[in-house]
Design brief:
- With 130 residues, this protein is mainly α.
- The protein contains four helices and no strands.
- It has helices at residues 3-26, 31-50, 58-89, 94-129.
- Helix 3 (58-89) packs antiparallel against helix 4 (94-129).
- It is flat, with a radius of gyration of 21 Å.
Length: 130
């Protein structure tokens, strides 16, 4: 399959997924969008395996890694700061205390996942270079 056809099928799957989600949610059915999402991801995976075109290269992989790192850093800092602010004003507004604790927990959890995955991939890269 050529890259042009791959892109077309990718857009069609995305449009179908959006239409299914809108119709299902407006009818009050929340299971169908989840199943459609799973089917769409599976379809995209099968399309990428069937495609003969080069879908990524080193430059795209490096840019994706840099973008992921920046978005992770911004998100981790924002959730940590917002969590601290909510905890600080939680004495006067008890509802904010729960939200602040949740945000702080999410921030700590994402930092832990980042540290563990970094250590794992670092060891994996060290074994591959030997």
């Amino acid at each position: 399959m050529e890259y042009k056809n791959y892109r077309l099928y990718k857009v069609l799957i995305g449009a179908a997924l959006g239409a299914i989600t809108v119709v299902s949610v407006s009818l009050g059915n929340y299971i169908v969008p989840i199943l459609a999402f799973i089917a769409g991801v599976a379809g995209l995976y099968l399309l990428s395996k069937k495609s003969n075109a080069l879908l990524t290269d080193e430059r795209i992989d490096k840019l994706a890694g840099m973008a992921a790192r920046v978005s992770y850093t911004v998100t981790a800092i924002a959730t940590a700061l917002l969590g601290m602010i909510f905890i600080a004003i939680g004495k006067d507004y008890p509802d904010f205390l729960l939200a602040g604790n949740i945000l702080a927990g999410v921030s700590c959890g994402s930092i832990l996942i980042y540290a563990v995955s970094f250590k794992y991939f670092n060891k994996k890269a060290d074994r591959g270079s030997r």
